[in-house]
Specification:
The structure is a homotetramer of 333-residue chains. Helices cover 32% and strands 20% of the residues of chain A. Chain A contains 12 helices and 17 strands. The first copy, chain A, has helices at 3-8, 15-21, 41-46, 70-83, 97-101, 118-122, 128-148, 200-207, 211-219, 241-248, 282-291, 312-317, and strands at residues 29-31, 37-39, 54-59, 88-92, 109-110, 113-116, 155-160, 164-166, 176-178, 189-191, 193-195, 222-226, 232-234, 255-259, 264-267, 294-298, 324-327. Chains in contact: A-B, A-C, B-D, C-D. Chains C and D meet through helix 7, strand 9, strand 10 and helix 10 of C and helix 7, strand 9, strand 10 and helix 10 of D.
């Protein structure tokens, strides 16, 4: 049986039941079908005062091309803790569509250590990646529009550093010249697209603690330099942060699904580790710590460089209590 | 009170109750929160044998820049029919994000003739536009990939006609040169993005009767011409239709919401009338006709040119029974 | 024998002897080898007061792809007039390198009706085309430089209308994007190259009466529009006309060569008829009229549209006395 | 008095007289006006058997931005040797138009150590640079044409390494995308222009010993790589070398002018030292050695790195007899 066969042989538990296992009431859920839900930001805020559970971090040395099993270790460890009666949740990154259609395949675990509904998670899931790309590209459009209408920014069209993004493996979009076709299409400019998982918006969303914090961070984005003094120009100077936040207000809500064995799984945020902290959203991990006694999560790679030099240190720096380490290779819990 | 104030003053009815009004059981719904749902394709197929209700088509003459009220007429007429006790549904196009952030504003009616939840509908809604853009851009990536790896198609890189799409008003992306930066990024090519509402995938989705028909139509897309004989090359020749269909399998399910007065409203598909048939998906209209005695829908503009020359004729050509005409300006029901 | 064999079988007369036939002293010549010379502008100015000879214009109807013999008619007629003892000169356009390496071949007549040295004339000749391209491209570089250093012109980078030129048939250069590679290379811009014979500088050189007039006309070139009011911006506003005139000071001097039968032939200036007046330089024709009793020249095509609508009317408008018409097809002198 | 005033105050000697000083008869000259001439290749071949004079090489350490006087040292040394009765010639590079219109100014010496006619030399001179650019760009056009007509080369359009050239300081042309505008204009390609002095053709012309050698070297130019095996493709594979040689047949002939004091000066070839050997043409230096007892020339910069590592070693490698060194700073003859 392949991963998909295994996943399809299981009847998922209703997402309300999964949420109930860690004390999240049905009223705190925004359901996407029967087996996926987002948790409302209001309920999350209300849970802020609670004590934290313990965080277990699964990491890995510099990986082989085949991967070395951080996700399956995380899922398995979570299911094991559940089986011996611990109130447990796991936290994972949500996968990008790009590698999913590329050679790498999906990213929701494998074998009997999967999160489900695997197909949904690997495709559009709850639309977070699309919302991030939309916010990213709205900013790009607003920038070019500001140049087009020559708003009073002094923004140097040759020094715009903001790129577009799309959730696709598409080498053709890495480097391009836009605004061709004459004056109605703007001023020609060299630009490009990054895959959404490697975008700054993805990193920002995963670090934001609430909508206000998200909006503040979005406003602080550097979009380029001005003509006279090469001063950095920020997204807030073209007043982009409000509309961007509107596009991201649902994406900020953590997604709740389950493992094949019914352990609650927060699958939320998916920044690549090469440009960002490489772990799931802090809002999801923090929520999990308020709801479960044990939270298993995974982070990045390169832990053989020492935790300080790898992406796992971001988990600590972000203000979470010190995790217990779990190395997936070998797994020395 | 503006439109948003009016919309927010109403407590929406649970979407299960709305569905029940026209005989759609809760088991046929995939809920997106409390007030939005998609209807499963299985249930739609099961309803195929039923008799059709009557179709009322609201159209308009060539519009003024201010618009002339097709949507508000459709909503109002639907609510009126409901009020006098008729089992009624309305069918509308879902709005594009692009104009929503542009000057034109959203497209979910106005005043007391709105569909709700207006903000959701105007933003990501159930993700249909994003799924369409993803399928569109996956095809583009597969085409460039086929050229890159010189698959045995003879496809002429200068005669690729397939463009990318994004749900954004972005003049900078209309015309561009892609694949710059040397060999690793492919062969330079002139291309561009269309707004998603004006993409061929949008048109195809709105005409498809089921997943098989959708996949067949996707495979028939012309992507360019070959080198030797300028023969048309199709999406099926690079085997793109399967993955594209996977990306569109949820988008094909009609979305159900409600008017402010609780009339069931199918808001599904949003092709622009300048390049396509300019009305909502046929699968939604056909479903509505199976569920309601009166279905009010709207179509395009330019009916002063005669129905045959305007987008409304597409409704007829698509195999629907002849609608009764309703002109929104003046509204001569 | 082909054209080249015929040309090589003849020993050209020294260019001083050719000049002497029409009263131009050796001191008025700048020799390029033994068989080509330019006439100094000082001597030309000194001859201004003389009476004009008679101008005979050879023209043609809309041509077939094979051409229909304007040049050979002109050469033959000139040689015939010489043979019967008339003091005669002919005036021809100088050929472009582009078509010479293309399918069309050279443009110095054919058979026994050639001007020589044919190979030199068909290649670089006295460098006029290169000088024109250099002046053209210097202006382009000065424009981009003015934008780069943001000189106080308000010139809109998207509305620069000045194109570059090269004396080559090169389809790749018709439309391009320049200034790629980041800030040090300027602001990206859509542009292109015209073949030198179709450049505005070529047209200007062929109409200029002396160096002052040339410089004035160069200064009047429209290079684009400004940002605020779409006002036309001229070459003189970036002070380009002086350096351009320096580059063209030799090119303005008419070239003197000979026919195979030793008739003096001014071969000077070569504007294409599709964008310009399509005949050789006025300075050459006017000089010829001062030196010879009969001057045979040719002009453009499309005379079947009536002289007023074709390029030959430019010869008249330019202030020359009314020519006698000579139709090359059939040749009805 | 500035350089130009000094130059204009002198009446140049007829170029025939200058040539006679070093035994070149008038019949071996192709005159360009009164004061410039090229020496025929036939006469050069005939002089091959003669004994060589002595070569004195002026070089310099890594230069300051102001330059450090190689050219003025060379001119002054040559004039000094003439003054004491030695049969002397000097050899210099011919200047590029580009820096001439830039900040650097011309390159024909200065003060009382100039070569004349300075203005002509600094502008088009005898057309060598234009001919080199034309041959360069003809090859580019032939390459794109071969791709356009899909000649049987397997040439990979993304791996064409041949660039265009123009004798102009123009940052906008350094990096561009060509062949835009659809199929009639070819396949889009990333390319660029080098200044003519930095082109491979310039280097080749300066190393070629005669027309046959020139044509052989032109044929050996690598234009790109093929699709299947990344095999290098050469100019001779598209049969470009014949037409290129035709365009260069006059440019290969050394130019003869004079210093202000009437010393014969060969000013021929002008490769930049950053990409090539950085000294004038070998054909000119070799000719000078056959005609004069003392030949003073200059080479490149960076001699403080040791002659082996700087451009002066090229003079030796090219088969010339070992020169006596002359350092211009300080000048320690």
């Amino acid at each position: 049986m392949n991963d998909l066969d295994i996943a399809r042989a299981i009847t998922p538990q209703p997402i309300d039941d999964i949420a109930e296992k860690i004390g999240i009431p049905a009223s705190a859920l925004v359901r996407y079908g029967e087996d996926k839900a987002k948790v409302t930001l209001d309920w999350i805020e209300g849970a802020n005062g609670r004590e934290n559970g313990r965080l277990i971090l699964v990491t890995a040395i510099t990986p082989t091309p085949a991967g070395e099993g951080k996700t399956t270790t995380t899922v398995g460890l979570g299911d094991g803790l559940s089986r011996i009666g611990k109130r447990t949740a796991i936290c994972l990154r949500e996968p990008s569509l790009g590698p999913c259609f590329g050679m790498k395949g999906g990213a929701a675990g494998g074998g009997y250590a999967q999160v489900i509904p695997m197909e949904d998670i690997n495709l559009h899931f709850t639309g977070d990646f699309h919302a991030i790309a939309a916010a990213n590209n709205l900013l790009a459009a607003l920038i070019d529009n500001a140049v087009y209408w020559r708003k009073d920014l002094g923004l140097d069209n040759r020094r715009i550093s903001w790129r577009r993004s799309v959730d696709m493996n598409d080498r053709s979009l890495r480097q391009l010249v836009t605004s061709l076709g004459g004056v109605p299409n703007g001023a020609p400019r060299e630009g490009g697209f990054d895959i959404t998982a490697a975008s700054e918006i993805m990193a920002i969303l995963c670090l934001a603690s609430d909508l206000n914090d998200l909006q503040r961070r979005l406003g602080n984005i550097i979009i380029g330099q001005d003509m006279e003094q090469r001063r950095f120009v920020h997204a807030r100077e073209i007043n982009a942060q409000g509309a961007m936040t509107a596009l991201l207000k649902d994406a900020l809500k953590p997604n709740l699904v389950q493992t094949l064995e019914g352990t609650p799984a927060f699958v939320h945020g998916g920044p690549f580790a090469n440009i960002a902290h490489g772990c799931n959203s802090l809002i999801a991990t923090k929520l999990a710590l308020k709801c479960a006694d044990f939270v298993v999560t995974e982070a990045g790679f390169g832990a053989d460089l020492g935790p300080k030099n790898s992406s796992i240190s971001n988990v600590v720096r972000a203000g979470l209590n010190p995790p217990r380490w779990c190395w997936s290779q070998p797994c020395g819990l």
